[in-house]
Specification:
Layout: H1 3-18, H2 22-29, H3 33-42, H4 47-57, H5 61-64, H6 79-90, E1 94-99, E2 105-110, E3 116-120, H7 121-144
Antiparallel strand pairs: 1-2, 2-3
Length: 145
């Protein structure tokens, strides 16, 4: 069985469990119903939508990608990380926490041109702190002018 067939079956199974139809899923993801139909028929899902599917179905990205059987979504991602991920999504970066088989937390980041970058939680937190510090500095400068 091809990987794409398995991926389509996994999504179809999650849709059945949640009791949603392709039209509802399309609305949740902000795509057309025909797009979802094509995904399901051909088993090809754009990388930027895999994370949205995982969030919608409240499962880990690697579960959606059929790389693991564990369905659990990563817990314990603090509010500042969630806020930073939201900020990144505004500039078209999709960020998804992933728990590796050895138990380490990493982050998958899809850039606007759909390149994938995997970084450790430590690297991600450093980037987050530096970015939020810089944003605070810029806001302070704007406020003092």
């Amino acid at each position: 069985m091809r990987q794409n067939d398995t991926l389509a079956k996994r999504i179809k199974s999650l849709m059945n469990e949640k009791g949603v139809m392709q039209k509802q899923l399309a609305e949740e993801l902000g795509v057309s119903e025909q797009t979802v139909t094509n995904w399901m028929r051909h088993g090809i899902f754009p990388k930027k939508n895999i994370g949205k599917l995982a969030q919608y179905f409240d499962v880990d990205v690697d579960y959606i990608l059929c790389k693991q059987q564990r369905r659990k979504k990563i817990k314990g991602v603090d509010a500042s990380v969630e806020t930073f991920i939201s900020l990144l999504s505004e500039i078209e970066y999709d960020v998804y926490p992933c728990l590796r088989s050895e138990g380490t937390l990493t982050y998958r980041i899809y850039t606007p041109d759909e390149k994938l970058v995997n970084i450790s939680a430590e690297e991600f937190n450093t980037i987050k702190a530096d970015t939020l510090h810089y944003i605070g500095y810029i806001l302070h400068q704007i406020g003092t002018e």
